[in-house]
Amino acid sequence: MAETIFSKIIRGEVPCHKVYEDDLVLAFLDIHPIAPGHTLVIPKEPAATLDALSETSAAALGRVLPKLCRAVQRATGIQAYNVLQNNGSEAHQAVFHVHFHIIPKPNSDQGLGVGWPAAPLAAPDADRWRDAIARALA
Ligand code: 5GP
User: Fold this and answer.
1) Atom of ligand 1 at shortest range from CA of 17
2) What are phi and psi of 128, to 5 degrees?
3) pLDDT confidence of 1, banded at 50, 70, 90?
4) Domains of the chain
């Protein structure tokens, strides 16, 4: 994986506003927040996208994410929030080191705006994608 700014933050070569650290995970404030308390949670393992991450780092992230969400809620006093995780430039990923955004949503005008072009799941598509994804897991 190519070196990113987050590798430098993990090594302490670039400063950050750290809110949490353990052996496998680091959390710090986003430098360009879209809401008060916007926090990034990253594995120390250098994986570009979530699909490339080890189960050990994934488990470590999963263990601390709820606790960090609660801390952001308490600190900001904002109960609603989005957890966002982008993979690939088409999906708006800018830093190619896995990261989860915790983004408080104070009201409908602030925080994350989401385009959600939903349509009913057609029966043939449902069968096709269920089978294809289940096969891919095997
Ligand atoms: P992405 O679009 O890849 O999901 O989001 C990357 C995030 O990293 C952006 O929200 C951006 O503001 C944040 N970011 C980029 N460089 C730095 C940095 O040097 N320090 C911190 N704290 N955040 C950064």
Assistant:
1) 22
2) -65, -50
3) confident
4) 5-114 (3.30.428.10)
